[in-house]
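User: quick one, fold this
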Amino acid sequence: MSVTALLDGSGAEVLAAACEGFRAGAELKLVEQLRRRYDAPLVTAAVTQAALRHRAVAKFGADAARMYFTPDGLEQATRTTVSTHRAIRVAATRIGTMVDLGCGIGGDLIVMARAGIQVTGVERDPETAAVARANLAAFGLPGEVVVGDAETTDLTPYEMVFADPARRADGRRVFDHNAYSPPWSFVTSLLQRTACVKVAPGIPHDAIPAGVGAEWISDAGEVKEAALWSGELYDGTPRRATLLPGGATVADAPEAVTGPVGRYIYEPDGAVVRAGLVTAVAAEVDGWLLDPRIAYVSAAEYVPTRLASAYEVLEELPYKEKALRAWVRTQGIGTLEIKKRGVDLDPAQLRRKLAPKGSAAATLIITRIGRDAVAYSCRRRTTP
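Assistant:
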């Protein structure tokens, strides 16, 4: 049954009841209760929608309680913190109109409309387009959503184009930008005008067209996306890392030296690593790289920084399973965090082999320096 059946009348009534009574893990009981009062197809659709709203809180916060979703639309949508950051950047340019090609459930339309931009969404799937319309209406926001194809849309009426190419095929995530839909050739054509295109964080730097800025964005320490900015939205910065919440940014990559491990090891935020700006961390903490090809920084002193997590080095350990197991046992370690770069290992598998059972907590950093793998017993340093 279409989500539109839940927008008014008895559909809206059963949806309200489903959301009020929803408890994760107790969906079947809720379905049984509601079927005593409502038609089965409406109940199934309403409980499914209530479950999606429950899941959506992680991305949309309080807005999720008023929004409508499809399973694929929720999976592909950008979390509000990230889309709001984009909208603020767009609004600062005084752009007045934008078209979202492949708008999905309309999450980006909502934040752009809230920023005062006149929005139009284009969506190939009629059901998803209807959901996007309903989401704009749920917040009383202006804008339109049309059913259409991104590649044939007339872009001339709009000052800006936003696009989020599909990065899934047969239900699996696509990492190769040449496998996007619409294709990469279409994406690069959009970037010849004023546009913002959301791409996967693993986009190769050499795939980014000249004259286009790339911004890697993390939220609460987790890399979420890269965005390509062109035309009036390009501020002349080729590569930038933005860390949310707070919006700390870094755009320069100064030269850095390499050296032996110091008292602290810094693990740069994933957005900083993806942007190729690890040396900015070294500059901020007066440190150096452990290896020129590995994204770990070391320093003699602790310097608080939003750009990286800090670990105090307690001792260097042999990178041998027997020695590490002995270390875990003698230290009484029960909670073991394993960080790794440049070495081929599965941290979860190694943790099982080391069998931590004690009451102490520790961090084990395993990395490569030159040809050799090394391990360090560390303690995570938190900002005072």
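User: anything notable?
Assistant: The two ends are 53 Å apart (CA to CA).
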